[in-house]
Amino acid sequence: MKHASKQWFALAVTLGAILALGACSKKAAPPPPPPPPAPPAPTASLSANPSSIQAGQSATLSWQTTNATDVSIDGIGAVQANGSQSVSPTDSTTYHLTAKGTGGSQEATARITVTQLAPPPPPTAAAPTDEDLFSQNIKDVYFDYDKSDIRGDQQSSVLGDVQFLNQHAAISFTVEGHCDERGSTEYNLALGDKRATAVKNALVSAGVGASRIKTISYGKEKPFCSESNEGCWQQNRRGHLVYQK
Amino acid sequence: MHPKWYMSGKHQNEILPSNTYRVTILSYGDPIFRCFSHATMRHSSGPPAPREPRWAVVPELRVLVALVCALVFCSAVPSVVAQDWVKTGTGLGVDKVRLAVADFKPSSSDPQNDALLKTFNDTLWNDLDVSGVVELVSKSFYPLQVPGQPVDVNFPAWSAPPPNAAMLAFGSFGVAGGKLTVQGWLYDVKNTASPQVLGKQYTDTPSDDAARVIAHKFADEIILRLGGGIAGIAESKIYFVSDRSGKKEIWVMDYDGSNQRQLTRLGSISLSPRISPDGSRLAFSSLTKTGWEIMMYSVDLNRLVSFPHMGGTNLSPSWSPDGLKLAFSSSRGGSPEIYIADANGANLRSMTANKGPDVSPIWNRKTGAQIAYVSGVTGLPQVYTMETDGTNQQRMTDQGYAVSPSWAPNGQFLVLAWERKYGPGDPGALDLYLMDIASKQWVQLTHDGGRNDSPSWAPDGRHIVFQSSRSGKEEIWMMLADGTKLRQLTFTGRNTQPNWSWK
């Protein structure tokens, strides 16, 4: 028994020596651990194409970023790291992109210059129709009480009408004869007929084609003004020219 | 109150089929106007006279005017008395027949009876009241016991004061077995020996309309006998223009304003309705796509029938009394002139040829040989007459603004709308005047009542229907031809241009 114990002891010492030696040599040259790499700073660029537009037109914003985790453009909000978007600002605008990453943040700007147009002209003025021109240029012809002859102060209206109608030979129209409320319905219709015919005859004799002109009497059936005074009555005693569609 | 101006009447000389009341009855119609004299009528070409204060009505005035009237009538000596405010009257010198109209007695206890009987009694009373030929005795004077049968009549209770009636209308009214039966009598209560003047029985299916029609028929029977043999108008119609549907359309109503209904539905402007003498066709003027044209409506068929379009402005049709021709105003030749055509529109020919607007022709409905019309040839419109061939054109009105003539059934008179004192600042008031055609003398019928226009004679020659703005807006009114008994017939919307049927 004594012999076996000596063998186990020798083995243990040997192994211990080997272990101890091995451990000593490893401690002598430890390689330094490499430092963690510093995070790279993000990059960002923003451009607008075109950079100058007219109001109502649109431009394309394009941006590229690297090393960014959080990209946003003021006024647009969060966006992808790379991308483009169409914008149509109404005023000149500077777009401001912020790219944030672990390595810091980067900003980029792009400006779109908007030039304002003159306000668009009203469509009627842009392309007036015959009907518009007719209502702007034609003047009605007013009459004295119970009269159907064209009085002196109405000649200028007739002349103006003739001038316009001769320049716009395609226009057909109706002359309505109107009367004030006094007197009988039937007589006023006959009088209104005379008034309409008087205006037509004045226009025809000045060169306006008779085939362009219809006449109708409304007597006192369709007054322009419904008060019982001379100012109102004068409004109602007229030859009213109406564009014929 | 307007002062009254009495015109003389004439005793009825014809033999009538009843008794004592004959000698006291006046004949209306033609004779009441026979006594136009210089004392009571103003000649249209005479100088304007100063306005005199209004006169109250006193019995002495009646006698005075009667005397002056008789004097002038017999001697033909013109005695000029300036009177501006006058009122024509129809009972001069002789009182009208005092007629008591007892409410008819119900002869059954049918539940429908009460309402129908009220319609009947109201209609009968109104017909007799507006007839102008009788003086109705107020119901407050009647005895408590009202007769329903001849045996019930207590003669002295009616003939003595307070009712002091000469005549009594009474009867019974009952719905039984789905039939309405009305018995009516007219009794001369001062002639107890032979009192019955009239006895009538009517049956119909019970309805409000039937009650009204029977009342009209019975009233006309009474008026025929008490009114000098001239038929009553209780069954006549009035055609007119109303805007109550939103557009001016042609409407019709009974002469008393009841039963108003719309005839045309053209959705345009329709004016100047004129019923044919036989009542079968209605001519009027309407705004079409091509202008104002004469239109023809069949009353029998309840629809428009064809009438040729003339071109130009065509207005104011008027029937000849034989119903074969139409006169109207047309500007087809350039200026509004009077034309005559056959009733179907054929054979069109112009009657006038002048510069002024000519419009509103109206045939002499007695002779058919003349036409009155309005012309503005001298400026303001005036009323003219001419023969139906266009000759003998005569100006009837001397001044102012004169329109809308209507020829009386007797052929002797025109009623027209006239503003005699037209001038600057004129308010546009029009009044109705009655003109004797032969002498051109006139009397004013309406006073101080807005614009009065479009007169039309009733077939009895006693009544005139017209439009007036006196109530604030244009409505249709009727009156006796002397200007009394004014009555408003329409109240809804604006109603104009009435035209009374020929019978």
Question: Which terms summarize this structure?
Answer:
heterodimer, A: 245 residues, alpha+beta, Immunoglobulin-like, 60s Ribosomal Protein L30, Chain: A, 2 domains, 5-stranded mixed sheet, 4-stranded mixed sheet, 12 strands, 32% helix, 30% strand, rod-shaped, B: 503 residues, mainly beta, Rossmann fold, Neuraminidase, 3 domains, 6-stranded mixed sheet, 5-stranded antiparallel sheet, 4 helices, 12% helix, elongated, disordered N terminus
Explain this structure.
- The complex is a heterodimer of chains A (245) and B (503).
- Chain A is an alpha+beta fold and 245 residues long.
- Chain A folds into 2 domains: 43-115, Immunoglobulins (Immunoglobulin-like), CATH 2.60.40; 123-244, 60s Ribosomal Protein L30, Chain: A (2-Layer Sandwich).
- Chain A has 6 helices and 12 strands.
- In chain A, the strands form 3 sheets. Chain A has a 5-stranded mixed beta sheet with strand order 2-8-7-4-5, with no helix packed on it.
- The mean pLDDT of chain A is 84.
- In chain B, strands 2, 3, 4, 5, 6 and 7 form a 6-stranded mixed beta sheet that branches. Chain B has a 5-stranded antiparallel beta sheet with strand order 1-26-25-24-23, with no helix packed on it. A 4-stranded antiparallel beta sheet of chain B has the order 10-9-8-31, with no helix packed on it.
- Residues 1-40 and 46-87 of chain B have low confidence and may be disordered.
- The chains are: A alpha+beta (245), B mainly beta (503).
- The interface between A and B is medium-sized, with 21 and 38 residues.
**Oligomeric state of the chains?**
heterodimer
Number of domains of chain A: 2
**Number of distinct helices of chain B:** 4
Structural domain count of chain B: 3
CATH architecture of the largest domain in chain A: 2-Layer Sandwich
The average pLDDT value of chain A, as a whole number, equals: 84
- The CATH topology of the largest domain in chain B turns out to be Neuraminidase
- Percentage beta strand of chain A: 25-35%
Q: Approximately how much helix is present in the residues of chain B?
A: 10-25%
